[in-house]
Amino acid sequence: MSARPAKERLVEAAFALFAERGYEQTTVDDITDRAGVGRTTFFRTFPTKEDVIFPDHEVLLGAIESRLAGSTDRTALIAVTEAARLVLRHYLAEGERAMTRYRLTRTVPALRDREIAGVQQYQRLFRRFLHRWMGGGPDTALRAELMAGAVVNAHNHVLRRWLRGQASDPEREFDAAMTETVGLFSRPREGAESSIVVFRTSKDLDTVLPELNRLLGEPG
Amino acid sequence: MSARPAKERLVEAAFALFAERGYEQTTVDDITDRAGVGRTTFFRTFPTKEDVIFPDHEVLLGAIESRLAGSTDRTALIAVTEAARLVLRHYLAEGERAMTRYRLTRTVPALRDREIAGVQQYQRLFRRFLHRWMGGGPDTALRAELMAGAVVNAHNHVLRRWLRGQASDPEREFDAAMTETVGLFSRPREGAESSIVVFRTSKDLDTVLPELNRLLGEPG
């Protein structure tokens, strides 16, 4: 018996037992016995056995909300990127526990479904924040949804690569992935009064820019 | 007792009972009694009670795969759009049944999780197809994932609007949503030998295009 909080003892016992016996073969009683904690405490801490696999889910949702809430109009996209980075860092800090969870969610359908539902909750937070940032009107609802989805997918892409041992420097991969993701949405929007001109050229840009400005710039 | 297939009778009975009594309050026995079909037939048709809510999920996955498989390199993006449209049209054709499912997935967590997991399966099909189309290398893995996610999100955005009674012309909204979605990814990729020039101009494009071609076009 240690002085650590009951929640941490339960999580540690649960992950150890799931790794030893498998998720389905482990009962809540097995977990509370190993942790030296009562059943009542378990169910006060986790509504179901599934929840012990994602013990910090609510904490992470709260951390994302705080990070987004602390931004301004100008720093909104940085806030989104940094909020997603908080989640990535949380998993990186978990280390072996994150790897065990990954093995479990790939093999236990109920846990996989639960994880996907959790990802949807992250995505909803980002979508609401981005939509408000874009003005909140119906004309930007889809764009906010696509952007939120892209941020979450980019995060998960890097996280999965790390969980599979394919990413030696996940933070750096995250930077590149977020640059690519935000870049998709950084074009001026179509349908405005002005036109968007996209050209691919092999000419030296410094040479043609003055003439381009003259050609396309606003009159006067 | 009608001559319709057992599967259709089971689905019809299940949706009627779920609407009358609620999902949790309806047992498989209630469904088979109402449908006039045996328990064995139910479980031969649907692995669990949840599956009767998504009776055509496997059919839709197969239809997407066929539509994608019938495309060429040049028609890949059309195939993706049309495959997503197949799914939309399926729901539109269901009508009231799709609305009942939407009410159920919003109120029964197990069904919501199952639906989200099903969406992930669509997304995986699109991701694999798009990644192969992009060459299949590690440099395009993220891009394929983002694009697949965007296609599925755009589809769901329009579908949800229709389910909520907000979209009077869902097919037209789908066209606009897919145009916006594919447009995000239609820029030539950065990092190639040539540069991408993006300009916003209020000038008449037809007037400036010849000079633009002269200015930025390839030598010779």
Could you characterize the architecture of this molecule?
The structure is a homodimer of 220-residue chains. Chain A is mostly helical and 220 residues long. Chain A has 2 domains: 6-51, Homeodomain-like (Arc Repressor Mutant, subunit A, Orthogonal Bundle), CATH 1.10.10; 56-184, Orthogonal Bundle (Tetracycline Repressor, domain 2). Chain A has 10 helices and 1 strand, in the order H-H-H-H-H-H-H-H-H-E-H. The first copy, chain A, has helices at residues 6-21, 28-35, 39-45, 57-69, 76-94, 96-107, 109-133, 141-163, 170-184, 205-216; one strand at 195-201. The radius of gyration of chain A is 23 Å and the shape is elongated. Chains A and B meet through helix 7, helix 8, helix 9, strand 1 and helix 10 of A and helix 7, helix 8, helix 9, strand 1 and helix 10 of B.
Relevant terms:
220 residues; homodimer; elongated; Arc Repressor Mutant, subunit A
Which helices and strands appear, and what pairs or packs with what?
2 copies of one chain form a homodimer.
Chain A: H1 6-21, H2 28-35, H3 39-45, H4 57-69, H5 76-94, H6 96-107, H7 109-133, H8 141-163, H9 170-184, E1 195-201, H10 205-216
In short:
The first copy, chain A, has helices at 6-21, 28-35, 39-45, 57-69, 76-94, 96-107, 109-133, 141-163, 170-184, 205-216, and one strand spanning 195-201. Chain A is mainly α and 220 residues long.
Specify the overall morphology of chain A: elongated
Q: What is the radius of gyration of chain A?
A: 23 Å
Question: What is the arithmetic mean of pLDDT of chain A?
Answer: 88
CATH superfamily of the largest domain in chain A: Tetracycline Repressor, domain 2
Largest sheet of chain A: none
Largest protein interface? A-B, 46 and 47 residues
What's the number of helices of chain A? 10
Strand content of chain A: under 5%
Name of the CATH class of the largest domain in chain A: Mainly Alpha
Helical content band of chain A: 55-70%
| Unreliable stretches covering 5 or more consecutive residues of chain A | 190-194
Classification by helices and strands of chain A? mainly alpha
Q: What oligomerization state is this entry in?
A: homodimer
Distance between the termini of chain A: 79 Å
Compute the number of strand runs of chain A.
1
At CATH level 2, the architecture of the largest domain in chain A is Orthogonal Bundle
